[in-house]
C-alpha cells in the first residue's frame, strides 16, 4: 500500500537539554511510511524524550524534525502537530475520566478542531458507525456509556489506543503500551498493535523484550541520549555494545523470566 | 537626598512587612500547594494574641514589666497560630491535598468563620495595642533622617524568621523529612517518614509564622477582625511573583513589590500606585508565568 | 425499549422545566411587589451563576473575578439610567467632583441600545483580552485564579479612585426612568421581571446547548486533562478564551438586569467578596450542572435575605460552614445529592474528589500528562 | 446519566416549590420581621397600640465597627420613650434589619421595611453610599429616613432628616478656626471616597477665600495600612496643619506611623473629622493624645441632658463603653421623630414632616432645632483635643447652634460647588 522508501518522519541531530543536562544528543531517526519501529534502551536513555520532541511536548535545543518530507515540526505547537497527523499515547493511561467511553472517542475522532466546527457538530450515522466500530475493535462495546475513570487499567490503555486510532494519524507514538498489563491483556494489546501497524507508521517505546520479539521489525537502541544501534532484533541482540549497556544487564533476568 | 534615603528605607520596610506576611504562605502554598485563604485570619489571630498578652501584663504584672510583654507576645502569637493551624490541617486541609482550588474555597469559608468568631469574642471595633516604650522613637542617620525603631525591628524580625526557616528546612532532620515528603511523597512514605505528621507540622509552622506577622503588625496598623483581609491578596502576589516553592523567590518578590509600591506611590498617589503595582505583576506573570525564580522541572504540569 | 424509556424520561424533564418556567412567569400573580423585586434580583444572580458554571463547572477554570464582569455590565446600564435621570444635565456626582462637562466615554451611554451592547461587549472584551494572554501563556489553575483577583483589585481601586467619572464608592444611583417608563411603577417592575425570566430561560437554553454540543465535550475534556486535549489536536487556549468570554458576557447581562431591579451599582459589588460569593452559589448548588448552579444562586440568596435579618452574626458562621461543607464533602453540590443514585452509585464523586489524604496526589497523576 | 437527569428533575421540582413556598409564606404580613418577637400582626405603622419603626444599620461586615453603637443608642432612646408612655400613647416597636455593609442590601432592606413591615419611619445608614442607595427607595415609596452621621452635604431629600452635621457645621468652621489659630499651610489627607473628596473640594475653595495655603492633597484607598510614603510627602511639604478625613482602620495606621516618624501634636496640628471617642479606643491614646477633632458632641460636653445620657448609656451597655457624636445623633433622631409625631398626632409622613419644622429639643449636644427648609438640624460646632484618658477637651465652640447650610449658599466662595 504505502510506497516504502519515502521517510514520513525524519529526525536529524536532535539535542534536548534540561538545565545543562543533555537528555538527547544528536539523535537521528528515520521512519518509513508504514513502518513499525521499536525504540529500546535502558532507563534514562532518552526514549520518552525523543517521543516528546516529535509530538511537540519538548522543544529541542538543536536539530530538526521533518514530517512528510517538508514540514519542520519543531516550531509547531502540540495541537498543530497532532492535527498534522502525529498521535501520541502516553505511558500512564491519560483518558478523560469524567467523560463516558463513547465521549472520549467522539472528541478524539478525526474532524475539524475549531471552536465553530465543534459548536455545530452533528453526529451523523457515518460517525456513529465509525465510533461503534472502534468501540468493538478495542473490545469495549458493552461499556460505551461507562465513565472512563471506572475502567480497569488495561481497558484504559485500550481506550487510549482507540482514541488515537480515531484521530487517524499517519504516525503513532506509543510509550510502553503494555506496561502494567496482565499477560492476557498484553496478548490482546499485541493483537491490537498488529492491526494498527498494518495501516500506519508506528514508533513504540518498550521494555518488554518478549513483546518486542513478537514483531519482526526494525529496532532502534538508544543509550545516554545517543543512537547506539539500529537493525533487526537479531542484529541488535548480536551487537556487543548493546549487550554490554543493555541486554547484558538484563540477560539474566530475562532468561529467568522466559523459563518461568 | 534625605528624602531618597527615607524612601529607600520605606521601600525596604514595606518589603519586610510583605515578606513577613507572605513567609507563612510560601510554606503552605509554595511547598504544600494548599491555597490558604484563611492565612490573613491567622495573622489576625497573631495580632489578637498580642493584644491578650498585653492585657495579661496590664492586669497581672507590675507596671515596670509592661514593656517586656512584646518579647513574650512573639512566641505566644506563634504558638496560638501554630495550634490553630494544626487543628485546621487535621480537621480540614488534609481532605484537600491535590485540590488547590477547592482548598482556596474551603479556607475562604474558614476565614469567614474566624473573622466572625473574632467579632463575637472581641467585638467589632478595633482594639488598641500599646507598643513597648523601647520601640518608640527612631535612629537618626545623616543628621535629619529618622528611621523608626519599629520598622527596623520588623526588618530584623523578618531576617530572624528567614534564618530560622532556612536552618529548619535545610539543616534539621525534621526539615529534611519535610523536603522529602514535599518532593516525593510515596518514596518518603516508603522510607518510613510519617507523611501525615509532616503535613500537619508543615502547615502548622506556616500558620505560626503568620501569627508572628500578626504580632509585628500590631506595631504599625489596626487590630480588628478584618485585619487579615488587608494583607491576603498582597501576600499571594508576593508568593506567585517570586515563584512558588522557592524561599529566595519570595524574598525577591516581596522586595520587588515593596520597592515599586513605594516608588509608584511617591510618583503618583496611593490608589494609582497600587493599581500600577498590580498591573506590573499581571504583566510580569504573562511574561514569566512561573515567577522570578522558577523551579525547573522536566514535567510540563 | 431502551429508546422509549429515554424519551419517556426526556418528556418528564421537559415537562418539569415547562412547569418551572410557567411558575416563574406567573409569580407576579402571587407575590407582593417587594417579594417580586427580590426574586427578580435572585434570578439575575442565577444568570451569573450559569455563566460561572460554564467556566468553572464545565471547563475547570476558577475565576474569582466575575464580580468585575457583572459590575461592568451593571455600570453600563447604570450610566444610561443616570444620564436619562439627569435629563441632559451633568450627573450630580460629576458636579461635586468638579467636572464641568460630560466625559467622552459617557457619551455612547445616552443611547439605550448602545448601552446594552456595551454592557455585553465591555465585559466580553476584557475577558477576551485577559484570556488571550493568560491562556495562551498556559497560565492556569491557581495562577489564573490569583490573576483574576489581581484584576479585581485593579478594577475596584480604579473605580473608587476616579470618582469624577465613576461616582466613587457611592457608585451610580438615583435613576428615574427606562426608555421613558418610570422605574418606580409596579407595571414597569413586572415587565422587567418578565424580561429577566425570559433572559434567564434564554441563557439557560444557550448554556444547555453549549454544554451538550461537542464543544461542551471538549471543554469537559480540558477540565479532565488540558495537556491531553492538546495532543488530540485541539488548541485548549482558544476554547478557554471563548468560554471565558461567553461567561463574562453572560455576567454582564446579569449585571444590567441587576441594576434595573436594585437601582444601584457601586464598586463594592465588584469586589473580591461578591466574586467569591458567586462561586459559592455554584459550589453549593452543584458545579457542572446548570440547574444546580441556577438554583444554588436563588436558594443561597433567598436564605441570606431571610436569615441574615434574624441572625446577622450567625449568618456568616452559617455561610462559612456551608462553604467548607459543600467544597469538602459535596463537590457536586446539592444537585449531586440527587444524582448519586445513578448506575455507578459508588462513583458519583469524580476521581479527584474520591479517597482521602495523601493518596490523592498519586491518584492525580493519572489522566494528566505524565512526566517525561 | 439518564437516571441522573431524572433526579435533576426531582431536584428542580423540590427546589422550585421550596423557593415559591418560602417566598409565599413570607408574603403574608403576619410572619414578616422574624426578629421582633413581641410584635403583633399589625399591618400598618401604628395599629393595635403599637408603632413600628425600622432600624437599618450594618450589623455585619466592615461597617459594623461603627454602626452597632448607633443601634444601641437608638434602641435605648426607644426604650426610654416607651418607659415614659410611648408616642401617642402607643409603644414603639423597633424592627431591626442588617444592612451588612453592602449598599444594595441597604436598598433592599429599606424597601422591605417600608412596603412589607409598613414601619412609620426608619433610623439608619452611616456611609454616604448607604444613604445614596436608600434615598431613591424612600422617595419612591414616600418613606421617612433619619440619617445620624456627619456627611458631605449637597443633598436635601424631602424624605430624609439629617441629624448629623453638614459641612458648614463641622468642616467649614473648623478650617476657619485652624487658619486663625494654627497656621496657614494646610495638607489635606483623606480616604479615597466621596466624603473626603467633597470635603476637600470645599476646603480648597475656602483656603483660597480665607488666605490659607494648600500644601498638598493625598487620598489613600480604603483599608490602606502603610503611610510611610505619605508621611514622607507630608514631611517634605512641611505644612502647619494636616486636615485628616481618613476613614476607619486607616486612621490607626496613620497615627501610629506618624508618631514613629517623630511627628507629634506639637510639631504639626492634625485635625480629624472621623475620629471620635470610639475610634480613640481602637487607635490607642498614646499615639493620639494632643491631636484635634471637630464634632458637634463629645462625651465630655457639659449639658444636663448629656450627663443623664452618658449615665444611662453606660448603665445599659457597660461602664467601659463611650458615647460619641454619631451615637448622640442617632439618639437625638429618635427623640426628634417622637416629638414630631406627638405634635402631628399621627405617624403619617407628610404630617410628621410638617410638624417637624422648626421643632426644638434639648439634645445631649445642646439645644437643637430642625430646619424646615433643608430637614437638617441646627447644631453647635465644637473643636476638641484628645486627652490622656481618651476623652476630648473642648478648645472652642460656636457658642450657639449653627444653621445648617448643606449647599453652602451662605458662602460666596462656594459658588462653584453649589452649581
TrEMBL record, chain A:
Keywords: ATP-binding, Nucleotide-binding, Transport. Pfam families: ABC_tran. Gene3D superfamilies: P-loop containing nucleotide triphosphate hydrolases. Residues 9-249 form the ABC transporter domain. GO terms for molecular function: ATP binding; ATP hydrolysis activity. This is ABC transporter ATP-binding protein. InterPro entries: ABC_AA/LPS_Transport (IPR051120), ABC_transporter-like_ATP-bd (IPR003439), ABC_transptr_urea_ATP-bd_UrtD (IPR017781), P-loop_NTPase (IPR027417).
UniProtKB/TrEMBL annotation, chain B:
The chain crosses the membrane at residues 12-35, 68-93, 105-129, 149-169, 203-224, 230-254, 266-287. Keywords: Amino-acid transport, Cell membrane, Membrane, Transmembrane, Transmembrane helix, Transport. It comes from the Bacteria. GO terms for cellular component: plasma membrane. It is found in: Cell membrane. InterPro entries: ABC_transp_permease, ABC_UrtB_bac, BCAA_transport_permease. One of its GO terms (biological process) is amino acid transport. The keyword Transmembrane helix applies. One of its GO terms (molecular function) is transmembrane transporter activity. It is a multi-pass membrane protein. Pfam families: BPD_transp_2. Signal peptide: none annotated. Belongs to the binding-protein-dependent transport system permease family. LivHM subfamily. PANTHER family: ABC TRANSPORTER PERMEASE PROTEIN, BRANCHED-CHAIN AMINO ACID TRANSPORT SYSTEM PERMEASE PROTEIN LIVH. This is Branched-chain amino acid ABC transporter permease. It comes from Paenibacillus agaridevorans.
